[in-house]
């Protein structure tokens, strides 16, 4: 009587043999090709819409006008200030507010996840601040701190803090109890458990929270510069729009987008560097 297991093994071997002898399929297109293709389609639609007169140049400049406006801003600056100064001021505000808010929020979130009484003490404030629109209290910050850099930095700090805190707290809560128990059984102190078990396990959530906080801070910065600013890319966009310089507005939007992508890619590189084990 033939053995069922031998039949199964024979079938498996035949399937593997067929799979090996099957001609290799064409490799799918690389992601960068899809991205270049989408950009090419967008550029073609843009040229067609502006070149045919379907859309007025007041509302949508041609690619040539956008290029000329970019060269003009690089050469002459905007309102007696070089373009790099506007970019640098916006970056300094982002890095200052985001850096302070992410560090403070991460530290607070780690403590909230590690100690229940700290979580109970700060959760009402974090949960109140997190869904609150940042521009709702920008006016109060201006009244309290005046017009200048301080209210912008504080606003960005308050935008980043609750997002980073919630991400760090949830990361600590997701740490497997068996890891903590194993460390305790080996005689590790509470600080050693926190330093060598809890913190590394929570790092993936912390980095994800940092990326989310950066996006919120970046959007908040532009709004803050529009409402209470006299420099920066956000202010430049608003001021150029007053004079119907849509070409300069689009240059500012393009600069903002490229800056945001660059900052996010930087965080992705940091994530791959310090939490390379995530998802494995």
Automatic annotation (TrEMBL):
Probably part of an ABC transporter complex. Probably responsible for the translocation of the substrate across the membrane. It is found in: Cell membrane. It is a multi-pass membrane protein. Residues 87-267 form the ABC transmembrane type-1 domain. InterPro entries: MetI-like, MetI-like_sf. This is ABC transporter permease. Belongs to the binding-protein-dependent transport system permease family. GO terms for biological process: alkanesulfonate transmembrane transport. It holds the Pfam family BPD_transp_1. Keywords: Cell membrane, Membrane, Transmembrane, Transmembrane helix, Transport. It comes from Rhodovastum atsumiense. GO terms for cellular component: plasma membrane. The chain crosses the membrane at residues 39-60, 91-113, 125-147, 153-172, 212-237, 249-270. The keyword Nuclease does not apply. Signal peptide: none annotated.
């Amino acid at each position: 009587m033939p053995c069922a297991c031998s039949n199964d093994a024979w079938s498996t071997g035949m399937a593997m043999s067929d799979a090996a002898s099957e001609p290799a399929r064409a490799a799918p297109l690389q992601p960068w090709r899809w991205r270049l293709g989408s950009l090419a389609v967008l550029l073609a639609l843009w040229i067609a819409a502006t070149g045919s007169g379907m859309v007025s140049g007041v509302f949508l400049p041609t690619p040539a006008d956008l290029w000329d406006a970019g060269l003009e801003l690089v050469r002459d600056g905007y309102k007696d200030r070089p373009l790099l100064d506007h970019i640098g001021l916006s970056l300094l505000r982002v890095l200052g507010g985001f850096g302070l808010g992410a560090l403070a929020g991460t530290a607070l979130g780690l403590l909230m996840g590690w100690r229940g009484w700290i979580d109970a003490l700060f959760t009402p404030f974090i949960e109140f601040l997190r869904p609150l629109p940042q521009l709702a209290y920008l006016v109060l910050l201006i009244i309290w701190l005046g017009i200048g850099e301080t209210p912008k930095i504080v606003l960005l700090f308050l935008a980043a803090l609750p997002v980073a805190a919630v991400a760090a707290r949830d990361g600590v809560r997701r740490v497997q109890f068996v890891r903590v128990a194993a460390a305790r059984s080996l005689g590790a102190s509470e600080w050693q458990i926190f330093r060598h078990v809890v913190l590394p396990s929570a790092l993936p959530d912390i980095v994800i929270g940092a990326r989310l906080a950066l996006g919120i801070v970046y959007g908040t910065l532009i709004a803050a510069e529009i409402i209470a600013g006299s420099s920066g890319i956000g202010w430049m966009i608003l001021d150029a729009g007053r004079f119907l310089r849509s070409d300069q507005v689009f240059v500012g939007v393009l600069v903002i987008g490229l800056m945001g992508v660059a900052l996010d890619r930087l965080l992705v590189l940091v994530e791959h560097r310090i939490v390379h084990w995530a998802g494995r």
